[in-house]
Amino acid sequence: MSSIRLRHTFWTLLALAAGVIACGSEKSPTQPAAPATLEGQYKGTMAGGPTVSASLDLMVAASITGTIKPVGAAAIPVTGTYAASSGAVALSGGGFTIAGTIDNTGSLLATSTHSSGPGNVVAYQHTAANPVTVFCGTYTGDADGIWNLARRGASLSGAYVNVPDGSHGYLPGTVTGTSISITVAGGGTATGTLSGTTPFAVMLTFTSDSAG
Fold first, then answer.
1. Which residues contact 177 (CB under 8 A, 6 or more apart)?
2. In this structure, what DSSP letter does residue 28 have?
3. Ordered per-residue pLDDT tens for the chain, 212 residues
4. How is residue 16 annotated by DSSP?
5. Angstrom distance (rounded) from CA 206 to CA 153
6. Vertex 8, ends 47 and 157: CA angle to 5°?
7. How many alpha carbons lie under 13 Å from residue 103 in its C-beta half-sphere?
8. By three-state DSSP, how is residue 210 classified?
């Protein structure tokens, strides 16, 4: 998979879902303890296609129900299954097929297929004690594309798609106070800050490992 080809490009993302984000004067959140059950509500995001950008809201049990909410469009119902023994998740609806795994921290990583192209899906288990905030946005620079993040506590999980060539991947990262650090799956890093109250904003500066 080729990497995003960017150098020192600023991207701004707005939160699509309310959540708790620590201010600089507050105690930084920590990684939640392993949940007692991996079933329940999950919130996340997806990017691919190469123009698909959406948030997800799922109720995970043996039979999964939920929605994919593309940016600027109506919600799409999805249904599927969850195998507790393996963590395997399978979903479909609205022309999307999603397959992935929930790990023992309540983090979902998955891939998606659609007639417009493949993509990546990320989500976290959402609870009152450990809420999830979803950010969806775009970037411009040496390349254009979609860049989406889900935050839970000190953890970030995201997905991107590079519109010119359709390359896509995951965006694992961390949050310390209002400072963000992200690794681009295909190569490169990003650092930045969270700001604002509602909606929240994310400002990031990226350096690609690829020649631009």
1. 22, 23, 24, 26, 28
2. P
3. 223 333 334 444 444 432 222 222 233 344 566 677 999 999 999 999 888 999 999 999 999 999 999 999 999 999 999 999 999 999 999 999 999 999 999 999 999 999 999 999 999 999 999 999 998 888 877 778 888 999 999 999 999 998 888 889 999 999 998 888 888 876 778 888 877 554 556 666 666 555 44
4. S
5. 22
6. 35
7. 10
8. coil
Residue length of the chain: 212
Q: What count of other Cβ atoms lies within 10 Å of the Cβ of residue 30?
A: 10
Whether 76 and 92 have beta carbons less than 8 Å apart is answered as no
Is it true that the peptide bond before 32 is cis, omega within 30 degrees of 0? Answer: no
Q: How many CA atoms lie within 13 A of 94 on its CB side?
A: 17
Answer yes or no: are the C-beta atoms of 190 and 181 closer than 8 Å.
yes
Element spanning 50, H or E: none
User: CB of 5 within 8 A of CB of 142?
Assistant: yes
* Domain extents in the chain: 7-28+39-207
192 close to 205: Cβ distance less than 8 angstroms: yes
* pTM given for the model: 0.82
